């Protein structure tokens, strides 16, 4: 991949979004879908089944919306073969309509094209290297020995520290911070406000005195926290997506690692030295404490937590706001918490929970292992 | 509203805060309150009942602080008529002292005045329009076709993407990101680090093969995530407030919507296509998953969660750290979770919870519906 | 402390990281540790027991890693005397090996040195004062009457509002926002995306009409939120550390306070007028609601919550994702929640929880106090 340091020039940020028109037959051909109905129908955008207008393409994946088929104004609907039997309009038949829709919709996405070049208002260390066809927006800082590879886009206000790599085709949307030693694979998408490579939360309680490693003449003083230097980096695999305001700490000694195709929603916290397997997805506000290891193809629900130093095997689902307090060795779905109730009922049941052990003993409950 | 593109000029950011002095009689007159005591007492600021000094105004709303009335040094106290009977100082009587205090305190707020104009260090797309009397601070980017309306203030380091509208009288304090297609009504206040309009978390698992919409010659490969394009925007009603580091994703196809006067605290996550009714307030770290619909005048407690595609009717209170897993059709207060206990007791009770169903069956419990 | 306003000049951001080599004997001498084995062994960096290479120093603190001692390639290992008895390599004996390692590792930390000076691209109010030997990076804004003291480092993209103080030796890594009236003590370290001093979440529901403090001719209208002005500041003690994307709101009237040596991880929310005692540490995603008061030497687990206006005494441990709903008067460990289970078992037990009070009554349970 040819990369070079580009002279600082002011470049236009965006060009006008393209508009595209395709016939249903063209879409069927392009995506390997079966066409039902009029292949000449034109499509210039997408909409929901309920509100799409003529000229728009919609999809039906969730059976609960099937009744909307009769009224939809969408010109073309992507659906399963089963659902098409009594549909009089134009349909594209897909085994997985949501996957097909994902591909189709990308055709109509007015994603702004960013011209290659480096905005005049950037602050780039002389030892950093930016590929010729990369885009670096306004008010971006890039630190020593860092590298921005082919076709990458660094949006306005990003800060890239020292010794970082932004791989080919990556996009840092805006206001993203890579603190130090953060290496992104190819096509990684990082949303605004995400912070990768901040120091992990490593603290030792210094109780003073000799032989703790303090100077021999340490004043006794009161016990206080000693920061444990955080020296590792962050390694992000190809095709990962990192949500807005998500934080991924650098490792203490070795790296924090996300394998390829890991998908993190917004406001997620990943502690130092965590390792997340390929294709795992985590929903908003979930958190993983230091040195935990999560497998491949896991789904971690919103607001769920994983304690430190645990291992979770492949294909584990953790439901929303559950807390994982021990390693999980078997694939499957796991939960904690209690159901939502009206507050009055909840108070009564919660009061009983406080006495549950005593109650079970009184009523002759065996002590469970 | 007359708006125009303003030439780039360097402007001073702030002027000196004003200082104001009012007599108790003037305050009573201005806010329609009943005066008890000496109307000539001068007030130049506000304080707490416990620590206010002479010249300051305090308030008494929570009965538990009533005992502080006897010792307060505040020159004027806002309170209910009931509380004033044995108070020898100067009082302003209000039916709702906290509301009255909110208005009174605003008189003394040293909110910096920002001179109209655009800082020299901004990067504004030629197609963007900024009102003459708007303020745009240092290191701000504004994208194509975006509009900043009369009297709005864009603080330093904000990024406004393409096709956004910042309504009249809005304030983006600092470091706020509006990614794309974000439209704010009038007088919306957005605190630092908030990200509006980032992509929603839309993913389809592509298992490969034909008729999923992939190219017919798709290599089998291993199943992987496919990003579903996020094409919608974010629509924020008048008088909303968005807390620091809060995230509101753009809709997948249609918009994510906050109606007027919605108040979001810090670190909140709002998923794509969520709809929040007017006057609803959400406390810090709460989260709403995609396509959920929350009614008007709801109160969502700190750290609470709402799963996707649910509906919550008007006037629902969800207590802190509760998880809403089904739609709520009746106004009222709802909770989940268990009470806090010392860890030893908690462990015993929690162990019993794991065996609760077995225990109930053993002791002849009926299976509940 | 001599401070002065420094002329705007462009300065290089970093110098090359130092590399250091020490013998085991030098390290023993410097840190007051007992040497076992060959004092001439050279160390130039640190590693984990499992993966360290020759020339690296590792540590053994957690007994579960003791078996790794036999295979380690580390040239020197820090450990307790007990663990050294059957170790044939070079050891440094410490009473607390983790504390000793924290000090030792700092020797090898390639922390970039930042040259004193102010980057050319900053926007600094004329009334602000920056110490001669402070470093102010690119795209930084500093507001009126603010002060940056000796040796402080303000990284790229930080926004410092009006009336703030950044004490001697502080570091704001990058993209940190101090909104207004935020005063940091000495050696405070603030990670990227943190927002200190945003408005607290103060709202009063204005139901309209006279004697609420609204104008006497208030239109009836519908009840709506009234913002309560937030006039206080934030006061952060010496040696505090504030994590990435953490938020600490300014007080409503008085200050929000963190005493010395408080350590906050990432994504934490601290409400207005909270007071946190010295040496308390809070893990990621925890939250404290307004006016709560937390003691000294507390440990708040990840995702845990503390409701408003509560008091927690010194030396309290709250486990992860627990919710504190009442004041805690006794030191100790506290928890709430339920254990993680496979989802099928959890559903059965959770359904029983909804009927727990009824069940206990039916089976003759006494009503607990």
TrEMBL record, chains A, B, C:
The active site is at residue 272. Its EC number is 2.3.1.191. It is an enzyme of class 2 (transferase). Keywords: Acyltransferase, Lipid A biosynthesis, Lipid biosynthesis, Lipid metabolism, Repeat, Transferase. Pathway: Bacterial outer membrane biogenesis; LPS lipid A biosynthesis. CDD domains: LbH_LpxD. GO terms for molecular function: UDP-3-O-[(3R)-3-hydroxyacyl]-glucosamine N-acyltransferase activity. InterPro entries: Hexapep (IPR001451), LpxD (IPR007691), Trimer_LpxA-like_sf (IPR011004), UDP_GlcNAc_AcTrfase_non-rep (IPR020573). It catalyses: a UDP-3-O-[(3R)-3-hydroxyacyl]-alpha-D-glucosamine + a (3R)-hydroxyacyl-[ACP] = a UDP-2-N,3-O-bis[(3R)-3-hydroxyacyl]-alpha-D-glucosamine + holo-[ACP] + H(+). Residues 41-107 form the UDP-3-O-[3-hydroxymyristoyl] glucosamine N-acyltransferase non-repeat region domain. The keyword RNA-binding does not apply. NCBIfam families: lipid_A_lpxD (TIGR01853), PRK00892.1 (NF002060). HAMAP family: LpxD. Catalyzes the N-acylation of UDP-3-O-acylglucosamine using 3-hydroxyacyl-ACP as the acyl donor. Is involved in the biosynthesis of lipid A, a phosphorylated glycolipid that anchors the lipopolysaccharide to the outer membrane of the cell. Belongs to the transferase hexapeptide repeat family. LpxD subfamily. Homotrimer. PANTHER family: UDP-3-O-ACYLGLUCOSAMINE N-ACYLTRANSFERASE (PTHR43378), UDP-3-O-ACYLGLUCOSAMINE N-ACYLTRANSFERASE 1, MITOCHONDRIAL-RELATED (PTHR43378:SF2). This is UDP-3-O-acylglucosamine N-acyltransferase. It comes from Lysobacter koreensis. The lineage of its organism: Bacteria, Pseudomonadati, Pseudomonadota, Gammaproteobacteria, Lysobacterales.
């Amino acid at each position: 991949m040819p990369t070079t340091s580009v002279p600082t020039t002011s470049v236009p940020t965006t060009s006008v979004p393209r508009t595209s028109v395709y016939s249903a037959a063209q879409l069927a051909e392009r995506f390997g879908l079966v066409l039902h109905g009029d292949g000449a129908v034109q499509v210039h955008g997408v909409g929901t089944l309920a509100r799409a207008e003529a000229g728009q393409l919609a999809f039906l994946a969730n059976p609960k919306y099937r009744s909307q088929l009769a009224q939809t104004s969408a010109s073309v609907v992507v659906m399963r073969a089963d659902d098409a039997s009594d549909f009089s309009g134009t349909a594209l038949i897909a085994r997985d309509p949501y996957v097909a829709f994902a591909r189709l919709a990308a055709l109509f996405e007015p994603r702004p094209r960013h011209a290659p070049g480096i905005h005049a208002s950037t602050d780039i260390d002389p030892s950093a290297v930016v590929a010729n066809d990369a885009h670096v927006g306004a008010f971006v800082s890039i630190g020593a020995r860092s590298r921005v590879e082919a076709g990458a886009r660094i949006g306005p206000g990003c800060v890239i520290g020292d010794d970082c790599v932004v791989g080919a085709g990556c996009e840092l949307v805006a206001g993203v911070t890579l603190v130090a030693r953060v290496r992104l694979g190819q096509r990684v998408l990082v949303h605004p406000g995400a912070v990768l490579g901040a120091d992990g939360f490593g603290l030792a309680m210094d109780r003073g005195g000799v032989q703790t490693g303090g100077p021999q003449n340490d004043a006794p003083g009161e016990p206080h926290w000693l920061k444990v230097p955080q020296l590792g980096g962050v390694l992000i695999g190809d095709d990962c997506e990192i949500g807005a305001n998500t934080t991924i700490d650098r490792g203490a000694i070795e790296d924090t690692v996300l394998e390829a195709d890991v998908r993190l929603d917004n406001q997620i916290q990943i502690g130092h030295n965590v390792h997340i397997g390929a294709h795992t997805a985590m929903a908003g506000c979930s958190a993983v404490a230091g040195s935990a290891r999560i497998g491949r193809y896991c789904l971690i629900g919103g607001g769920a937590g994983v304690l430190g130093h645990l291992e979770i095997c492949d294909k584990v689902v953790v439901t929303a706001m559950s807390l994982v307090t021990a390693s999980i060795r078997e694939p499957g779905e796991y939960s904690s918490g209690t159901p939502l109730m009206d507050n009055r009922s909840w108070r009564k049941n919660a009061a009983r929970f406080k006495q549950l052990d005593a109650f079970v003993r009184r009523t002759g409950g065996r002590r469970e292992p």
